[in-house]
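Table S7 (text form). Paired inputs.
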Amino acid sequence: MYILPGKLRAELKKPLGELHESFRNIDVGDSFLITVGDVTTRNALEHGLKPDISIIDNRIQRRDSDHEFNDTATIIRSTNPPGTITEDLWNSIKKAIDGARAGERFMIVVDGEEDLAVLPSILMAPADTVILYGQPDEGVVLVRAIETRKRAEELIKNFEEA
């Protein structure tokens, strides 16, 4: 398990990619698409995007959410306490990536918090992957895995291992 140290919290509040105010100008083309977060996933689906993998926790800004996703993706359940990246979450993302590369779509439902799932997604996803995640009160961040992989590796190296 990786634990987010306090010294990295401010760094991870900065966007890892391009910040967009809305989905209006986002074009992911034919890229492999991963969405992280309930609002981001809902907005992506409402804008006609079909994520290969969605990662949600049924919470919006740390408050329970009872929204329903009209999506036909296969559900994978994972456990990941706040401020961590568990082996269970890593394995769930890996399983979803392997299945999605074969043409299936997945939704990982996290018991805990999904915020840090962006990092293992960047590290394990195919090179052509676009990852979308929410930047609270600012918009949506578009991350190109191939361009951000080294940064994600540097960040993970600074996590505490348990």
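Next pair, protein 2 of 2.
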Amino acid sequence: MATAFYEPLGDDRYRSTEHTVGPWGPDSQHAGPPSALLARALEQMPASWPGTLTRISIDILGAVPVAELTVRTRTLRPGRNVELVEAEAEAGGRTVLRAQGWRMRAGEVELPAVPAGGPVDPVPEFSTEDKPFFDWGGGYLKAMQWRFVPGTQRGVGKAAVWGRMRFPLVGDEEPTGLQRVLTLADAGSGVSYRLSPQDWLFINTELTVHLAAPPTGEWICMAGTTRLDPSGFGLASTRLFDRNRLVGLGAQSLYVAARS
């Protein structure tokens, strides 16, 4: 058994392991691990000032094969306090995934206390009971540890689950908080599904994550809601928590159709 989602091969190349396999077939990846791989590439780009990636948008340009990936990065918009950076994953000479991120200069800012009546986002209850994400599927779904928030009902368009990576993302590296969030966030639409996955397609073409705070710890909670429109599309929105606070918001545009 592989000990990570990806094995580094050098020259920005990575071997995708069995832990990346998505639930729909053995030859394509769940988009969570490659999204996190691109987030890692953006985090490791050379920079002239300390900064934080505060927003990442992932465009899924095609099925990501369980194969060797090559990752490339570039700066789209340099700046003294903010910059826009980009990473792409290629497989077989084809770009399959693209990420763009806004990086902001990091610093210490003394903020006033939140006034009474301000936003409050209570952290969902943590569970100690492991449960499978679905009753089927291996690969990615088994490479993650899942604990549904007590009282969660599946299949109604609203649900919450805690998730944790059982393996490092790359080699024996300790994943960063952002990498943990991106590994999970693409599963948001699966958390809060409204239609039977066996009878319906609800495919996300993209994922956007905005951070509200730096994520800490191994466990991330996704509290998701899915809204569908009869014209054939939908929106999955996900609040992201660590054990202490809200750390971000995720959103996915969904293509919706009955399986033929």
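The chain has one domain: 6-105+126-258.
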